[in-house]
Amino acid sequence: MAESKYLTSPPDTKNLPRGLPYIIGNEFAERFSFYGMRGILVIFMTKYLVDGQGELATMQESDALVSFHNFVAAVYLTPVLGALLSDIFLGKYRTIILLSVVYCLGHLALAADETKVGLLVGLTLIAFGAGGIKPCVSAHLGDQFGKSNQDRISRVFGWFYFSINLGAFLSSLATPLVLEHFGPSWAFGVPGILMFLATIVFWLGRNTFVHVPAGGMAFVKETFSSEGLRAVGRLIPLYLFVTIFWSLFDQSSSKWVLQADKMDRVVFGVELLPSQIQAINPILILILIPVFSYVIYPTINRVFRLNEIRKIAIGMFLAALSFVIPAFAESAIQAGETPHISWQVFAYVVLTAAEVMVAITFLEFSYTQAPRKMKSVVMAVFFLSITAGNSFTSLVNYFIKNGDGTVKLAGENYYFFFAAVMLSAAVLFSVVGKFYRGKTYIQGD
Fold first, then answer.
1. What is the pTM assigned to this prediction?
2. Which domains does the chain have, with CATH numbers?
3. Which residue blocks in 183-225 are alpha helix, DSSP H?
4. Exposure winner among 187, 299, 318, 359, fewest CB in 10 A?
5. For residue 270, what is the DSSP state?
């Protein structure tokens, strides 16, 4: 096999793995690509979409919300296919390279065709590409660590998430400006160029990576062994409750953008574009990751032991609070006022704190709780919770539509509804989490 010339298990060292810069560099460029494209989708569908003759054929807000969350749901459904391709047949490295090419073609389709056909083809290819590599990249990162340096995994996953959000921050600021001044072709084309660069960076690191071989039939045996089934079975109840977190979180790129369009967005004398407000989330992540790692978590641990389950539970309660804040802003909008965007800034601070406690913790937790040959598959099951959350949002928006174009959950009631569902999920997660008994698996054990 071609992979025989590469390391197939982590070396016995306490140092950081040599391939980390390539993985983190790849993730930065790929996330710039994804969040740049995703951040302008709702605005594109409601303001720029054209028909075959070049005439405007834009969507209503409710239809755009349904389409957006169906796309996000698809992105987090396809990780199952990527994980199976990786863990059974190709291994993580080859799977990432192959599906990155598909990903690049999706960006090309969006940039070349501004109609519904281009939108459908582009988003379909991106859903397969972005979704397919997703469980492999995070699992590939974990594979670089062995027993000797496993104590450094937690902080490296934090910096991995840091790179994700640095890319998202820069893209959330830049891509809306490109759309505003140069149009959709360039706005989708620039993220496509970044995705091509991400693929090149990852390829350059091939000789420094640990390439854990595909499991083949050994993967099938481990997956359907009593131990494999127990590992997945223990995690699924936790994933069911966290779906609601993703239902709320991903609306910061849809419902919150539409709300921002009706708010006073002048900050320090500069009027921000509605889709640029999303940049607050990644910049807050850059600030809050080290704050939580080095200040908040150690401080709480002096009072009581803050394990993974407790971190996630606290984060879910914060997520519920984050949707109460824009509810008050929406109430002012419905009353004919123009509230300042600082309402959303405050909501983003709370939501991002929740993200640090839920998303980062669950990313690392899912990897360490997965048997060694099942790493990508368990990560894919985790990503299915994001699919379920976005499907829930899509269904809610579909069923609340009235025939005359109005909606049943109008104004602030929409936000209060999701806050109440999140609060219920947080309470249930806290109860179920007390009974979780897991096992940690590290490559090289």
1. 0.80
2. 21-205+223-433 (1.20.1250.20)
3. 184-204, 217-223
4. 299
5. E
